[in-house]
Amino acid sequence: MSITPPYPPNPGFNPATPLKPKNWLTENIVATVVGLFCCCGVNAITGVIGIVFSTQVDTKYNAGDYAGAESSANTAKIMFYVTAGLVALGVILNIISFFLYGGLMFKQMQDNYNYNM
C-alpha cells in the first residue's frame, strides 16, 4: 500500500486572506447599455455609479483593503439592482405607452383616411 506524501504548502496562499468579492462589473455595464438604448437614459446615472464602484473592488482588494473591497462590491451590487429595476420600469412604461398611444394614433389615421375618401 502506497501512502502519498502531503503536499507542500503553496507559498502564495495565505489562509488569512479573504476571498475576493464579486465585482459586478459585467452586470453593471450590460444594465447601463441596455438602459441607454431602450429607455429614457435616466438609469445611466446609477449605472455609471455602479461601474465606478465595480472597478474599485479589484483595486482595493489588490491593495490589501479587504473591507473596502467588500463595501465597494456591496454598493456595486445595489447599483446594479437599482439600474436593472429602472430598466425594467422603463421597458414596462414604453410598452404601456405604445399600446395606449399607438392605438390612438392608429385610430386617428383610420379616421383621416375615411374622411379623405
**Poorly predicted regions:** none
Count of individual beta strands: 0
Strand content: under 5%
CA-to-CA gap between the ends?
99 Å
Class based on secondary structure composition and strand pairing: mainly alpha
Mean model confidence by pLDDT: 86
Strand-and-helix sequence, N→C?
A: HHH
Instruction: Give a short account of the largest sheet.
Output: none
- How many domains would you count in the coordinates? 1
Helix content: over 70%
Backbone shape: elongated
Write down the Rg.
26 Å
Number of helices: 3
Summarize, please.
With 117 residues, this protein is mainly α. It has three helices and no strands. The protein has one domain.
Structural summary, described in words:
This protein is mostly helical and 117 residues long. The chain has one domain. The chain contains 3 helices and no strands. It has helices spanning 25-38, 44-62, 66-116. Helix 1 packs parallel to helix 3 and helix 2 (44-62) packs antiparallel against helix 3. It is elongated. The mean pLDDT is 86.
